[in-house]
Specification:
The structure holds 2 protein chains of 2 kinds.
Chain A lengths: L2 H33 L7 H10 L5 H18 L1 H10 L1 H20 L6 H31 L13 H4 L2 H25 L2 H33 L5 H19 L3 H23 L2 E3 L9 E2 L7 H28 L21
Antiparallel strand pairs in A: 1-2
Helix pairs in contact in A: 1-2, 1-3, 1-6, 1-8, 1-11, 1-12, 3-4, 3-12, 5-6, 6-8, 6-11, 8-9, 8-11, 9-10, 9-11, 10-11
Chain B lengths: L2 H40 L2 H35 L1 H35 L6 H30 L4 E4 L4 E4 L2 H5 L2 H39 L2 H47 L1 H7 L6 E2 L3 E6 L9 E6 L2 H7 L6 E2 L2 H12 L8 H28 L9 H10 L1 H16 L4 E3 L11 E2 H4 L5 H32 L29
Antiparallel strand pairs in B: 1-2, 3-6, 4-5, 7-8
Helix pairs in contact in B: 1-2, 1-4, 1-6, 1-13, 1-15, 2-3, 2-7, 2-15, 3-4, 4-6, 6-7, 6-11, 6-12, 6-13, 7-8, 7-11, 11-12, 11-13
The chains are: A mainly alpha, B mainly alpha.
């Protein structure tokens, strides 16, 4: 196996890590208002329970995207350049959403004021929904192919990117991430928030299974390879299993299954792409492949050593963080707000 | 304006914005780690309170720093795709390393630090903030190594078959002498920023507490004076010593960097001095007047002899320096027709602003260390004014320095290395993406408005928390005086969003 293949796999690993980890972050953000809307309990405390399940880890999860971007730049500069200049407006929207989300999460508790908190909640919800949908649209379009001319420029318009397959992809990622988040919440919370999260997860699974199943099947039939049928089956089986396991109170296993569903889907997308990285719909000769888009052998070799040594270290300490904060949270664990009132003392 | 201009404005605005926040993060993380270490070692509660107080300001700043940094990672591909194709083989490596080595480290351990109070053992918790401090500085190293390649490309060769620069030695890239000078210079600037920030706030609080004590009731007055004496004074003195050390490091590394620039990017330095024509032992210019974007309108008003020769080569006489017009003629011969002059006005004045603005921190350091000598605690009103006024100066100096560095390299995006591979060079118009001008306008406006709004929120939060001072909530370390709880009541989180 050449280093180009290795790096194709590593890029896929980084994006898979990003979608597994940020998938439930997005889900948590998307579902925060739903789980915090109950009348009988203090809504704000419930929203804080939801938010704090990802409190110590969301920032580290997001770095998977930054590193994936950096790795793409280092290993496949042509892919990086064509992708990000070609998908300009969707990427701009994703960046805006991420910026808003970061600040909303961090600043929410800083001021003790209902209007302030409501605005931050909007930021979190917006910042979670937009990337959850748009990453699906973007990756579906990468697999489907866009108009790439001889100069490696994407000439597809924004409307071209909103084709049925890509829209189904966006709907799929949104639903899968929401389900992934709901199961994560069921795993990480206690008492009535947990009960509601279980309920929400089972309800979300109902539309998710057919929609995600449809998207995965479409991908397989239109772009898949023989062996990727395994992934289709794995993703579908995992999603179906989620319902039963969540109902039975086995949230840990249910979370493992939604993670498997995300992994299988992302791997399916990358496997369908291989050995191309951005197929051109204009002429197959214009397609970017792992060979014509990659860096020089020396760069790939250096980066391989770096990744081989550093990735396990990162996995160990990130895993340790999850272990440190493994306890379930309930409304009883949430301390009173220590934010300052808006005006000066 | 065409796509190139809008793209340049966009990169400038977003980068300068990012670098308002970055130096405070880089400098403040180690300072907070030092404060927490003092608490862990001495057990004195006021160091704990200081850690929490400045920790809150640090987190407010960190959030926006991260948010604005994400854009940078993708902007190369979005707006500068041709540049990315040309140098990706080289430039991508330090960026990916930055993610793998530094970003993961800082983000993961910052989460552990924020939420780990009272949950992690004291020493493990202390280690988390030190790892954050290492992470933020490591990220500075990698990104500056990447930037230094654009200023002085090394460790790469040109492949005529692919038409791009290709990495030949990661070691040469990471030990680029430009990076070896720029990295400590930027870090010293960051320490100056954070030192001035902490000293400014602590100085203001010292005066405020002492003056309030005069009109307060006896127990309240004792508490206020106690805070000023045992908490804000040590914080101010610690950070002022950091300012002194950082200032010395800035002068030294700045001098090294200047000498390298005269050698590697003579056009940048000629432009910084408004030195239009090649001369032997030219004077150092303090003030010029004129329209100034070109050599025709420049009149030197105030000059100092010997300084410039020393800055350039470490000799007082016998130094010949090339002028802008002569370099222009030389470049035209070398690289073909074109305008190879940077904006003379911006380079000239940003260079002077960078150096001149350091006076704010220097003034605060001298006044602060003098007023706190021998156990004294100042209550002079003017000192509280000076403390507050000094805070923005290093931020502005950082911006001025980067504006000088980056605009001085124009029109190049990869400046040719006079002793390197000749073909590794790219002008900005060759590096820009082929977008319509409206596309780039749209993103420019979006980012500017969003950043503007968030900047206001950031400033208000920082001010609000600085004016509030150390919180009652943080008066005692967790686990210090907790009453024994009922076994079945869950322990509340020490921190929750």
């Amino acid at each position: 196996m050449g280093l180009e293949e290795v790096w194709f796999i590593l890029i896929a690993v980084l994006f898979t890590g990003y979608f597994v980890l940020e998938g439930f972050d997005f889900g948590v953000g998307m579902l925060m208002p739903v789980l915090g809307r109950r009348k009988d309990a203090d809504g704000d405390t419930r929203r804080r329970v939801v938010l704090n399940t990802i409190g110590p880890v969301w920032d580290g999860n997001e770095v998977w995207l930054i590193t994936a971007g950096g790795a793409l730049f280092a290993a496949f500069p042509e892919w990086y350049a064509t992708l990000f200049s070609g998908f300009y407006l969707p990427l701009l929207l994703i960046l805006v959403a991420l910026i808003v989300r970061i600040c909303a999460i961090e600043y929410r508790g800083k001021i003790d004021d209902d209007t302030w908190r409501r605005r931050c909640d909007w930021g979190i919800v917006f910042g979670s929904w937009v990337p959850a949908v748009l990453w699906g649209v973007a990756f579906a379009n990468i697999v489907r192919g866009v108009d790439i001319n001889a100069e490696k420029q994407v000439t597809s318009s924004l409307l071209d990117l909103l084709n049925p397959y890509a829209l189904l992809g966006g709907l799929t990622t949104a639903l899968v991430f929401a389900l992934h988040g709901a199961v994560f919440l069921a795993l990480k919370t206690a008492d009535d928030v947990r009960v509601d999260a279980v309920e929400l997860a089972t309800r979300l699974a109902l539309p998710t299974v057919p929609v995600a199943g449809g998207f995965v099947l479409w991908t397989q039939l239109a772009y898949g390879k023989g062996w990727t049928w395994i992934l289709v089956v794995a993703a579908a089986a995992a999603l179906v299993g989620v319902i039963a396991l969540t109902r039975a109170g086995r949230e840990g296993w249910a979370f493992a299954l939604t993670s498997i569903a995300v992994v299988a889907s992302v791997v399916l997308l990358f496997a369908s792409l291989f050995p191309e990285v951005m197929p051109s719909t204009l002429d197959a000769a214009y397609s970017l492949t792992i060979d014509n888009a990659s860096s020089s052998p020396y760069t790939l070799k250096v980066m391989t050593w770096a990744a081989a040594f550093l990735t396990p270290v990162v996995l160990i300490y990130q895993g340790w963080t999850y272990w440190v904060f493994r306890q379930r949270i309930s409304t009883k664990h949430i301390p009173p707000s220590i934010g300052l009132p808006l005006g000066r003392r | 304006m065409d796509t190139l201009d809008v793209s340049r404005w966009q990169f400038g605005i977003t980068t300068v914005y990012h670098f308002i926040l970055v130096p405070l993060t880089i400098g403040l993380a180690p300072l907070i780690a030092a404060m927490q270490t003092m608490w862990v070692v001495t057990g004195k509660t006021h160091w704990y309170r200081l850690t929490k107080f400045f920790g809150k300001l640090f987190l407010i700043n960190f959030a926006l720093g991260v948010a604005t940094g994400i854009v940078q990672e993708f902007q190369f591909g979005m707006n500068w795709s041709e540049y990315s194709r040309f140098v990706g083989d080289v430039f991508g490596a330090p960026l990916a390393l930055e993610g793998l080595v530094a970003f993961f480290l800082e983000s993961t351990f910052l989460g552990l630090w924020i939420f780990g109070w009272g949950r992690l053992p004291k020493l493990v918790h202390l280690a988390t903030i030190w790892l954050v401090a290492i992470g933020v500085n490591a990220s500075a190293y990698f990104i500056i190594a990447a930037n230094s390649f654009m200023q002085h490309p090394v460790g790469a060769t040109y492949n005529p078959d692919t038409g791009r620069a290709e990495l030949t030695s990661i070691w040469a890239l990471l030990t680029n002498n430009t990076a070896m000078a720029a990295f400590p210079h930027a870090v010293a600037g960051a320490f100056l920023t954070a030192g001035t920030f902490v000293a400014g706030i602590a100085g203001w609080w010292m005066v405020r507490s002492m003056r309030r004590a005069k009109t307060a009731t006896a127990p309240e007055a004792a508490k206020l004076e106690g805070d000023a004496r045992t908490m804000f004074r040590p914080a101010a003195r610690l950070s002022l010593l950091v300012v002194i050390a950082a200032g010395a490091a800035l002068v030294f590394t700045g001098d090294v960097q200047g000498k390298l620039m005269f050698e590697q990017q003579p056009m940048k330095m000629a432009s910084a001095e408004s030195l239009c024509h090649t001369a032997t032992d030219p004077d150092f210019s303090i003030l010029t007047v004129g329209t100034h974007n070109n050599c025709d309108g420049v009149t030197h008003v105030l000059d100092v002899p010997f300084v410039l020769s020393y800055l350039a080569e470490g000799e007082f006489t016998g130094v010949t320096l090339q002028g802008v017009e002569d370099l222009q003629a030389q470049y035209e011969e070398q690289f073909g027709p074109g305008n190879y002059r940077p904006n003379l006005f911006v380079t000239y004045w940003s260079f002077r602003a960078m150096i001149g603005l350091a006076a704010g921190s220097a003034l605060l350091a001298v006044a602060g260390l003098w007023l706190t000598r021998g156990g004294r605690v100042p209550d002079q009103k003017w000192f509280s004014w000076l403390s507050v006024a000094a805070i923005p100066t290093p931020f502005l100096a950082n911006s001025a320095g980067w504006i000088f560095t980056e605009m001085g390299r124009q029109p190049w995006v990869v400046a040719p290395n006079p002793t390197g591979v000749d073909m590794i060079r790219l002008t900005v118009d060759q590096g820009v993406s082929h977008h319509s001008v409206w596309t780039v306008w749209f993103s420019l406006i979006t980012f500017t408005l969003l950043y503007g709004a968030l900047g206001v929120v950031w400033f208000k939060l920082i001010r609000r928390y600085a004016v509030e001072g150390p919180l009652e909530h943080d008066a005692h370390p967790p686990g210090d005086d907790e009453e024994p709880e009922e076994p079945d009541t869950p322990k509340q989180l020490s921190f929750a969003y």
